[in-house]
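Usage

Read records sequentially. Each one opens with the input sequence:
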Amino acid sequence: MVTTESPTPQPSPTTASQTGDASAEGEPEQSAARSFFGEIGAQLAQSVRKFRGSSSIRESLEEMIEDSARSHLALSSQERLMLGNLLKFGALRVEDVMVPRADIIGVEEGTSLPDLLELFREAQHSRLPIYSETLDDPRGMVHVKDVLALLEKENEHGLRWQQVPLSKIRRDVIYVPAAMPVLDLLLKMQASHIHLALVVDEYGGTDGLV
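and closes with the structure output:
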């Protein structure tokens, strides 16, 4: 007796083709969105490497978003929300976030290091601006970790840290106008590695601190 086997069913070529087409349809949109956010990341990275004081990063982002709209890039609602929040943050000015002059805790340049260490304890800040007589004559800033480093040297090498003048550990600060966009200031801080800015008015007086 001969048994005849039924042929094994083969997948429909049409079905496989349709599946491939469905996957391909979503790829251009996803690729476009990735390209768009990659462009934003490249722009921000370039701005950090070389800060240009005459240009606004927020304006650059707005131009890129307008270009994406003309190119019909497919962005999800979450991606649009992220960009919206970024632009809202970019709309803030230094004057919106600065510590006003009346609330600034500074240190006079003739202050001894023991007194400075006590001031750091009271202020609960890691950085304090240094001034001569008034805040309108700033001389830089001091970081608490530089004071602590002197304490370590005293323990290791017998250094009398109390006699070290404040000028030996003084650091630079950034001077910015109140109207500067906050996003530009943050990029300027990152590019210069200086994380304390004094806000000055048109006469050079100190208005605030960031």
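Summary fields computed downstream for this record:
- The beta strands are 99-100, 107-108, 127-132, 134-143, 174-177, 197-200, 206-209.
- The first strand starts at residue 99 and ends at 100.
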